[in-house]
Prior knowledge:
The protein is α+β, with helices and mostly antiparallel strands. The chain contains eleven helices and 15 strands. It has helices spanning 9-12, 14-25, 54-57, 60-76, 89-103, 107-110, 113-116, 157-183, 191-195, 264-269, 318-332, and strands spanning 44-45, 49-51, 79-83, 124-126, 141-146, 202-208, 218-223, 229-234, 240-244, 247-251, 258-262, 279-282, 289-296, 303-304, 316-317. It has an eight-stranded mixed sheet with strand order 2-3-11-8-13-6-5-4. The chain has a five-stranded mixed sheet with strand order 1-10-9-12-7, with no helix packed on it. The model is unreliable at 25-37 (pLDDT under 50). Keywords: Iron, Metal-binding, Oxidoreductase. Pfam families: 2OG-FeII_Oxy, DIOX_N.
Amino acid sequence: MSMDSDPPFHKAYKSFFDKTIINKAVPSPTSSGSTSNYPLLVEECDLPLIDLSLLDLGDEAEIDNCKSQIARASQEWGFFQVVNHGISSELLEKMRSEQKKVFSQPFDMKSQENKYLNFSAGSYRWGTPTATCLRQVAWSEAFHIPLSNISGSDGLNTLSSTMEQFAAKVSNLAQKLAEILAEKLGQKSTFFQENCLSSTCFLRMNRYPPCPIPSEVFGLMPHTDSDFLTILHQDQVGGLQLVKDDTWIAVKPNPEALIINIGDLFQAWSNDVYKSVEHRVVTNMEVERFSTAYFFCPSYETVIESCCEPSVYRKFSFGEYRQQVQDDVKNFGFKVGLPKFLL
Length: 343
């Protein structure tokens, strides 16, 4: 990846870098200048691994056991990984290859994505516009694309068609998993089929460039996802970390698996049965990292309410939730999330 393709992190955040250098050179009386509050060296673990082929090939007991594993992992971890998920390795490899090509374009071209790449304006994102210090900077770049906007583009038709194929497959997987999770709550609702349509979901291609000070900067700050489900395909570099039992742990990459995590909306809808867990991405000094995430979302008008009583959260629309998150980030520098909606 050429240097002129990287976002201008150093230029944009020069004042933050300068402050960090000064603070390290002249530590305060109460600090050694270390980054002890940023635990990079955390234990690596395997997420719960679930074989989805049992849903189609297993007997009745195996099918029910597979569904129970999905629900249990969603309650206890908020994260799990799936194999035999119906998305071919050829398609995943093609998606990664096309993703690398688009990120290798010059920064000036990526930042005018509607002109050069036929993505809607605002799809390309990098860094953190609202950051007030280096710790709030996301050392990453991404294309965050509504599925409704994926279409052919000059010279990049292969990317568009690959994204369409990938999105169609993961959309079906998300619907299947959501229905299983609803079923395990005793709900036979068609809520997800009616409200989480291809036109309301998003695909996000991420690139995390090598970072010269990985002990100081996140690839993505700690956060929870503002959706029902996220399906992630990551490379083998590693860097994804999550909270389990109040401790940060690193997710060990599995080349055969997709990672699934519960979002805020499912936690609210399930009345706190399924957990939307805080996670982050740490940076790497030597190598770049790629991932592709699919966000399973409803329309902004969709009302989210707990599927059982007494409800933990008040009713809210997805649009209202998104606006609250944006307001909190602007006002506080971070997302507050579901606690704002507690009854």
